[in-house]
User: What shape does this take?
Amino acid sequence: MKQMGKLAWALWFGYAFLYVPIALLIFYSFNESRLVTVWGGFSTKWYAELLQNDQLLGAAWLSLKVAAMSATASVVLGTVAGLALARFGRFRGRTLFGGMITAPLVMPEVITGLSLLLLFVALEQAIGWPDGRGMTTITIAHTTFTMAYVAVIIQSRLVSLDESLEEAAMDLGARPAKVFFVITLPIIAPAIVSGWLLAFTLSLDDVVVASFVSGPGSTTLPMVIFSSVKFGISPQINALATLMMVVVATGIFIASLVMARQDRQRKRDEQMAVQGG
Amino acid sequence: MAVQPIRKPTRLEPWQDPGQKPYVRIEKVTKTFGDFVAVDEVSLSIYRGEFFALLGGSGSGKTTLLRMLAGFETPTEGKIFIDGVDMAGIPPYERPVNMMFQSYALFPHMSVEQNVAFGLKQDGVAKAEIKERVGAILDLVQLGQFGKRKPHQLSGGQRQRVALARSLVKRPKLLLLDEPLGALDKRLRERTQFELVNIQEKLGVTFIVVTHDQEEAMTMSSRIAVMNHGVIAQTGTPTEIYEYPQSRFVAEFIGSVNMFEGRVVEDQADHVLIRSEDAGCDLYINHAVAVPAGATVGVAVRPEKIALSKEPPVNAAANAAANADGRNVTSGIVREIAYLGDVSIYLVELKTGKTVRVTAPNVVRRTEMPITWDDEVYLSWRPFAGVVLTQ
Ligand SMILES: Nc1ncnc2c1ncn2[C@@H]1O[C@H](COP(=O)(O)OP(=O)(O)OP(=O)(O)O)[C@@H](O)[C@H]1O
Ligand SMILES: [Mg+2]
Assistant: This one.
């Protein structure tokens, strides 16, 4: 019993560690006072002000757009890379490529950011593209470093996928492209979805790489938050963060509901099969 | 080993008819993986409508050979012809071949019906016809009510039948089956063996079946190729393989066998005489062998071809020459008896120290059996029973 008590305390402590900061943020987003740490009574005025704040909303919108686009691009490229690594046998330099795909995972972001900046500047001088830095360059930069994560996820899924499924499809008359879209893709779809979500999240909270490759007109949300910290955080940011959290939490909740339903369905089916119905 | 083929012998066996063209011709095919030779100069001719078994131990190259036929591996050397067409450079999706995988390889995200319909869809068969053919083939494998299920909702045996239906529904001219019954229990296995043979005879498909179960190969196939370390050790009908093995490997791989070592002392046109220390008697065989006198050879005698008796065997007229001077007769002491119901297996220790295995049908009830442990018995066999093996 005593043991249980201790364990329960440890549990509570762990969860508090995780969630108190978030709870505090939500709590202060309803604070009347401008001072972040002083409670001045309940109010939703920061939410109202937030809706007027074009700079903040613009940054949030830009961040979401960049995250969605770069996640999509990196899923496409990462799938291709993962497929090449997992499927095309032992081509020359395969080990080298296999190692190189994971390098961006451990590369310091500052270096990634700096090298991309150099690349963009050089490209602009050479061929006149990208024209200045902005949403395009941020998207490209985010794609480069999130692609590595996606490729690793897809590759490990493909390695565990029985290759004879693809061979069977080919044996039954499907051409390789068809095999990919009808067999491989549907089976690895969950890995692709989680790769997309991971890329989206990584892009959404990146501040270092974005700082290097963004231009004057394009500031992402993390950059705005990060720079505003120096001047004191406006409670509007608390409000924005709360809103985003609600959106994310709702998304996760719906996803897990769907997954749980599928799981139950599968269990029922399996039971039916066992009973030989 | 009382295995009987479950098919009636066909009147004219195509491999004996020089006018017949083989449907599949494998010419000196070699496949290497790095330095490792998985398939070594294999040549085979397989005829239309055959049920051809590839038999061999684990790692002997059976799957590799099958995968080359299906087009998943390219031969390092040699050629494969199917229906007279050289298969070099023809991808799997353009070959008139379907393969049933060792792992079944059912598409997990598709229902049974969709799995079976997949191949027909690739060929652009009309919807109505697909529905009809899928329904018919599922009925054939007795899975009519399971069409809407996903593969993970099926038992192992049901999955195996879906895989079979999927590879049959396209009516391929050549069907490759990689250990099709490996995962089934004994009863389901026997039933499915019959089903397979029925289907094969009904649809007239040419089957090439990989197995490492010799009993399965014996019962189902028209011919068997025994593989060993990538080499075909022998090709022949089940009876040929069992009764006339050409090498020690084949003799020992198929069924059980007693192997006596000896030296040829008499080499005549109508018989050979082999002196064997092992057997403790001279071995008389009523046909000539192409080995010079003095050569050392092995003589294989199947356990069921040896007769046991407590008295010295009487020389029946037919055996007179053979059993004269105690040829093909030896004696020993019964060390073990395994009662299997229909037959009993006796392990007899000869005076020479060699243990010989004998199987005898249980004609009388067990309690009345005349021969028991530690009895001294005579072993004898007829002049045709031994097979001389030089390799
Ligand atoms: N892709 C490959 N790379 C390297 N070696 C291989 C490859 N495929 C097969 N081999 C080797 O070739 C040999 C023959 O393999 P194969 O799969 O044909 O055996 P098998 O007769 O089907 O055996 P089993 O009865 O165990 O299925 C094995 O030693 C195997 O290790
Ligand atoms: Mg195999």
Observations:
- The radius of gyration of chain A is 24 Å.
- Chain A has eleven helices and no strands.
- The mean pLDDT of chain A is 85.
- Residues 40-270 of chain A form a domain with the MetI-like fold fold (CATH 1.10.3720.10).
